[in-house]
User: Fold this.
Amino acid sequence: MQNSQPINSIPIQWFKENPLEKPGINSEIANIAFLAQADLLLLITKLFAPPTAKMKQDLQVISPSDVDKLLKNSKLPTGENLATTYRQIQQQIQEIDLDIWVEEYNRLFEAKVACPINESGFISRDKEAILADIAGFYKAFGLKLSKAMGEKTDHLIGELEFVIMLLVMLTKTEQLEEKKTARNALNTFTFDHLSEWLPTFCEQLTKVTGLVIYQQSAEFLSMTWTAIMTANQLANPIKTTDDDANLDDDTTL
Assistant:
């Protein structure tokens, strides 16, 4: 994937070092932060998986105190807000009727697709090019999609699982070149894919669902993603586009 051209052509500077790994910051602390961020994203994939009795049971045992520890170790900003939102989610998990949860999941993401849960549902570029680029990333790093996604290469869960894999990779090697490969893939993939549609997905989900647990899960996903982008200095395509527009405006004055 390093030699392939990203779908987006906006020129940006890939970050050369992660801020959590700057001189003076213990590498063990940085690795713990990456793993905590990966675990937070893994928790989010469970929130957006098809609801089942086992899934609900698995989520019920992830206590707010467990998430508080993850947030503390993740070094993410807005940790207190994330902790508050998760406490609200956990309350909903304990109280929600599973049949209602399943029905709303199907209405949102399956039958009527009130809110697409895959990238090509939000991005107007050539769908085949998007799917091919994503599949190329997965193949290059050996990611096998989970059954929860069916055949959707660009499913939210699949894209988050790939980011999880890259965060974990950053903790598993001491080889500079391998770390650089993982970092470049993380920045390229988030810029070309997740950051292009995840914010819009969260906004739309909040608008079209009346189920509190999905409103809160959308908020938790949005805040977590923004915090991970900030903590790791990942390029934001929306911000880059806005900055370019502002530069054009300044040039014409």
Observations:
- The chain has one domain: 19-252.
- The mean pLDDT is 83.
